[in-house]
Design goal:
single chain; about 425 residues; mainly alpha; 20 helices; globular
Amino acid sequence: MNGLQKIAIFIFGALLISISYFTHRHESTLLLGQFTALFSIYIFLSYHKEVFSLKAIIFIGISYRLIFMLLEPNLSEDVFRFIWDGKLWWAGLNAYEWLPTEIIALEDNTSFQVLFSRLNSPNYYTIYPPINQLIFYFAAFFDSTFTSISVIRLCIFAAEIGTLTLLPKVLRQYQFSQNNLIWYAFNPLILLELSGNLHFEAFVIFFIVLSIYYFNQSKVFKSAITLGFAIAFKLLPLILIAAYFRKISLKKWVHFGLIAGMVLILSMIPILFSNALNGILNSSELYFKSFEFNGSIYYLTRAIGYSIKDYNIISFAGPLMGFLSFISIILFNLLAKKSMPLSERMMWTWLIYCLFATTLHPWYCLPLLALGILSGYKFPVLWTFLIFFTYIGYTATGFTENLWVTFLEYILLFSCIVIEVIQKRNPSFKNTYK
């Protein structure tokens, strides 16, 4: 490691501190300028990965994550809903059955009032699964909001440590250089959204990678259990069960799905026999019929709807996108070559979901990065840069989406995907992940 690389590592850390501790979400020019600088250094260091030892990459990656230990998330308010839910459980209330607006009308508790002012969804029922709620419950034991945030951060940190130590082993299974871990360990969006903003995709990524690891060792039972845990933390990985089709016999695949489903059912037992499901279904429906952010295929469909109906057709187009996503995922995994690696099947499956989604926040695409690294594709790396620019719509008083930014994001992403697919079909193509 030469002096320039050491300086880059130091500047990268300083920028992480600046963007997370001293930059507000609505300061778009400063925020995006710092992120661009972070990403530029990330690319520079990643393309010089061979000068690092694997231990050095893991150590530096952990060090960057430790930077956030004193941070109150500055780009997302989700953590305050986590703590809110936990406080409700301690108050003897079912977090799934009460809207925050209902609670604040009943409770005169100061801590509830402070948290309520920080919520971004006070009119919606919580949708976080029971396994997440257990973490919220332990975190909310403390009166201090900062301490509660720290407890959640330690859990996210543990999941990230798991991924940092496991990913090199799976890279070796696919005969890639273990130093490709650097593409994950130093990725600015991974750092900011997981260790910084405390999104639970950290657990999803860890358990997906662990499932692939076990599958590649022919430990199908353990692979099913660990994928079940990924689904338990966020229901979306349920779509990945399709990726195992034709990788094993039909009988084993059915057993695989049943085992993963059983893990999910066991994790949901606390709410299966209560009214909680009504609240979850109520809020989940909003994702298909009301919420829209950073969509791609959906936005094109919406534009056609405006030209024909002269109003937003999301109530029809949202469920349609869900149906088309489901059909496309099934067809892809039916038609994909049996020889296609599991990680690549998962990558394309997750991408299909993302492209049909009506709402796609930056952290939703993070599993794609890990899967792309394991599959030899770089377009997820580009997307972790482009998707951050959706933050440009935030102001001090609200949010207005800039559709030109969204348009440019997807034009560049699709272009990169097409180029990579063509390159990989060229026999002379040399994969830089090797």
